[in-house]
Amino acid sequence: MNAAIYPGSFDPMTLGHFDVIKRASKMFDRLTVSVLDNKAKNALFSVEERVNILREATKDLPNVTVDSFSGLLVDYAREKDIHISVRGLRAITDFEYELQIAQTNRLLSKGMLDTVFLTTSLEYAYLSSSGVKEMASFGGDISPCVPDFVAKLIYEKYNNK
Ligand code: PNS
Q: What is the 75 CA–ligand 1 centroid distance (Å)?
């Protein structure tokens, strides 16, 4: 059985992430989407909220499970006995950051964790969670960027502030 992890902050999941999830779920028998529990980052959604959003969005994808992790990705992957990490590449600006993560993971895992990149679909090439949050915070229309139920949750967060 070939399995992969799609790790990330997912604060929150965008349609760009969802596009990668759907495509990766067709390539692997089992895909674990895992939210990094990074206490240092000032997140809009708690890890539990992010996991719930991803679970709701992927409920019709039977081979996708959603989880969270803290610490090093290589340790988490070893625990799960998974050897492939999936990441989306939007534009050339992502490349250096992604290359660094991928090389670090390969080094730390002594070659046991490799990274597969999916280029994001063109309509999502300029989409980012931080851009979506900024648009929403100023009342912009984020409906082309995230599922409707997620847009509602984001607007709720900003109205509560
Ligand atoms: O969505 P993001 O924030 O770009 O995802 C980054 C992520 C979660 C993939 C990366 O920061 C990560 O794996 N962090 C866990 C800590 C770790 O393993 N660091 C070593 C590789 S840089």
A: 12
> Measured from the CA of 36, which atom of ligand 1 is nearest?
8
Distance CA 68, CA 158 (A): 24
Q: Residue whose CA is closest, atom 1 of ligand 1?
A: 8
Kindly list the distances between the CA atom of residue 122 and the CA atoms of 12, 118, 133, 137, 151, in Å, as whole numbers in the listed order.
Answer: 20, 12, 20, 25, 21
* Pocket mutation for ligand 1, best pick of 5, 6, 9, 53 (most atoms within 8 Å of C-beta): 9
Q: What is the pLDDT of residues 80-119, one digit of tens each?
A: 999 999 999 998 889 999 999 999 999 999 999 999 999 9
Kindly give, in sequence order, each residue whose CB lies less than 8 Å from that of residue 2, ignoring residues fewer than 6 positions away. 28, 29, 30, 84
**Each residue's pLDDT tens digit, 119-142:** 999 999 999 999 999 999 999 999
